[in-house]
Design a protein that fits this description.
This protein has about 180 residues and is of the alpha+beta class. It contains six helices and five strands, in the order H-H-H-H-E-E-E-H-E-E-H.
């Protein structure tokens, strides 16, 4: 995608504030969601429009100051996303929340990255959206959750949490529940 410098900055800001500056992996996951939303008719058609949408991203995401020393992972990931790279396990997801939060709504969890859980909404209103209308996800979407909820770390092996070790709270438990229910 050919992006203006403003669009690039909006993407960097979303990645910086939403991934907790934890890793390129977490930033790529957030960037994938932003681009999935840009391609969806349900959201604004620009990166800044998506990132600036009311109550969708961290408060002050477009106005707070960023520490230049901590921006490198987000800048690197934003440039990759703007060239077409996507986080393979996020696939078509257009939603995420802190991994420690237990979402009360029906959802299919796809992965946990950068401290966030990425998911598909499963209500009737969203089913058409996930049947092929997202053209930007270059990676193959996750078809089934495995018995381990994992996070891919750039340059490291995947770390997983077995479902039987889940504490019953947060996104990992929900991913295990989703898997058990066959959703």
């Amino acid at each position: 995608m050919a992006a203006t410098s403003d669009e690039r900055e909006c993407l960097v800001r979303a990645m910086y504030f939403e991934s907790n500056r934890s890793s390129v992996d977490g930033s790529m996951a957030v960037g994938t969601v932003v681009m999935n939303r840009v391609e969806s008719q349900r959201f604004p058609s620009t990166i800044c429009g998506v990132v600036g949408q009311h109550k969708q991203f961290a408060p002050g995401v477009l106005t707070r100051s960023m520490d230049p020393k901590q921006m490198k992972p987000a800048v690197h990931a934003a440039d990759a996303v703007l060239k077409g790279a996507r986080h393979a396990k996020v696939g078509p997801a257009m939603h995420f929340h802190a991994a420690s939060y237990k979402n009360p709504y029906p959802a299919k969890y796809l992965t946990v990255a950068g401290g966030n859980a990425f998911y598909l909404k499963t209500g009737r209103r969203w089913q058409k959206e996930y049947t092929g209308s997202i053209s930007t996800a270059k990676a193959t979407p996750v078809k089934d959750l495995t018995k381990r909820a994992s996070t891919i770390l750039v340059g490291a092996q995947a770390a997983g949490v077995p479902c039987e070790d889940s504490d019953g709270t947060g996104a990992i438990s929900l991913a295990c529940e989703t898997e058990a229910a066959g959703r």
